[in-house]
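Holo prediction. Input below; ligand is iron/sulfur cluster.
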Amino acid sequence: MKSGKPRRLDAEATRSLRKEFLEHVKELPDGEKVMECIQCGTCSATCPSASRMDYSPRAIVAALRAGDLEHVLESDSVWLCASCYGCTVRCPAGIPFTDMMYELKRLAMARGLLPRARQASVMAGTFAETVNRLGRNNEVALIRKYYLRTNPFAAMGQMGFALRMMKRGRLELSSHRIKGIEGLVKMLSTVEQEGAK
Amino acid sequence: MRRYGYFPGCSLMVTNRAYSISATRVARELGVELAEVSDWNCCGATAYLALSEAKAFVMSARNLALAEAEGHDTLVAACSGCYVVLRKTGKYLDEKPAVRSRVTKALAAGDMTYNRTVKVRHLLDVLVNDCGEEGVRARVKKPLEGLKVAAYYGCQVGRPFGEADDPEFPVTMDRLMGWLGATTVDFPVRAACCGGLTMTTEPDLGMEMTGRILRVARERGADCIATACPLCQINLEAYQDKIGRKLGTDLRMPVVYFTQLMGRAFGLSSQEVMAQDSLTDVSAVLA
Ligand code: SF4
Ligand code: SF4
Ligand code: SF4
Ligand code: SF4
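Structure of the complex:
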């Protein structure tokens, strides 16, 4: 996981970014419909996070068509998406915008373009590490590592919560590793070797 | 006994075991066996999806393959996050040959195959629609008379394809509560997003979203909120005091799983429906 200040992209990198994004979007069911956006703003009106985004969902589609994705990726907009599928359900043009947000998150991480809300990417990376090791997620391990990497002091604020959970026996203190973990790791590395996103 | 493949999902193992235990129990009362698929792995969920879509699909596909190998044609997910990811994987495998061949190859590396015969469904959908009004009413021993429930579906039950219920205005749980003898309050935020993981990554945003749901439930005079997803449940039950302090208003409200209410109406004890695990004061609701 790369960290640090956002990196700027040069012109060449910008072109390849847009090309890669469009290629991936075409792989999504209904992905090609992105060019049919009528800029109605329904997605932005629906989005519970839009008020905090520099680039609202509608603006992100516009920026994409104008070939200007780098500003979007350097802002924290995509990290504020809670994946509620509201935009996807309501878009009159049938554009699967939630899936596009996922694609943008992946591009931002792959390029180390870490925006202000880098926490979300740390969370995703921490989650994946745990799962690669066990085949399952362990919430205690996840949260502990996550706070160590982002803000150890914030973990103190969670102490009350942890204690209440502990009292009820709801903290998962040991980790369960699935039997088929070797097979799963082989499957995942096969995907990796193919370079698929 | 009707039998379904069951995918509990990681967060139901310990943290939210109350949901899984009550669900398995009430299903049995209804003549439904939720047979846990053996050696399932994490579905790949929201966070993994953000790193690598191809890997998330492989993780979900392994679970579908396990269910298929055990002879199930349906895989029931209790967590809405798992439900959406498992379902989406099935859809991509059907519709996108490129995804299908990549996933097939990956599964083969672990000596597995998947022939796309498994349908993914949400627990709420199965218990309500397959057991039906008569089946459920026949089991009710102690109707939940006088109980006013805010039926909260969260954002994913009907989304994104609207197969299990209406994506904008789901009604399944409201109907169920009626069969149990309870009433549901008018609850316009029934399908609003609680903020999900933003509670951890963007707390201000998460608290605003979850706070609104709690506030509306109180304003509408609900005795409790019923949920159908462990993530919705945690956000709504664990941060009430914190959000209340931030917004300067009392947001306390019992939050329970819909399966716990079913269990109580079926005459199970409050221990049997795991009331003791609640972070909110559920004594008046599950007593
Ligand atoms: S709702 Fe759809 S058509 Fe309307 S602006 Fe958003 S993406 Fe474009
Ligand atoms: S899926 Fe993301 S972008 Fe779409 S409405 Fe929900 S939060 Fe906004
Ligand atoms: S989405 Fe969450 S609960 Fe479901 S399998 Fe993955 S980590 Fe577990
Ligand atoms: S309401 Fe929240 S926890 Fe529930 S499904 Fe939506 S984002 Fe996930």
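Residues 11-27 of chain A form the longest helix (17 residues). That is the main takeaway for now.
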